[in-house]
Specification:
Layout lengths: L2 E5 L2 E4 L4 E8 L7 E7 L6 E7 L5 E3 L7 E6 L4 E6 L8 E8 L13 E2 L3 E6 L1
Parallel strand pairs: 2-11
Antiparallel strand pairs: 1-3, 3-8, 4-5, 4-9, 5-6, 7-8, 9-10, 9-11
Length: 124
């Protein structure tokens, strides 16, 4: 069993930066992949960025490419999302997720474990 706990959310003005951290409690093996998703009020949950643990391959939604960076610190069992040049459209609850199944990186149904989320609010 894996428990994921997100931190680092908050309120920031447009153009600012935030760093989200997801701490994993439990076994995350090399066959796993992890990702950040977000959900704004009234909208569906969408993939923001993903990473394959074994290869380090990363994936990004078009809307965040060049602004967000996903990374993992295996020694600390943490997954990070560095967010820069934030926009009001980035306002959402951000969730960390992990899976041991294959599939498209942003396919929600393939993820086995989810955190409870951390709120990011970007004001104009």
């Amino acid at each position: 069993q894996v428990q994921l706990v997100e931190s680092g959310g908050g309120s920031v003005q447009a153009g600012g930066s935030l760093r989200l951290v997801c701490t994993a409690y439990g076994y995350i093996g090399n066959g796993y992949s992890m990702a950040w998703f977000r959900q704004a009020p009234g909208k569906e949950r969408e993939g923001v960025a993903g990473i394959e643990i074994w290869t380090g391959t990363t994936y990004y939604a078009d809307s965040v490419k060049g602004r967000f960076t996903i990374s993992r610190d295996a020694a600390k069992y943490t997954l990070s999302l560095q967010m820069t040049s934030l926009k009001p459209d980035d306002t959402a609850m951000y969730y960390c997720a992990a899976r041991y199944r294959d599939g498209t990186w942003n396919n929600l149904s393939t993820y086995n474990y989810w955190g409870r989320g951390t709120q990011v609010t970007v004001s104009s």
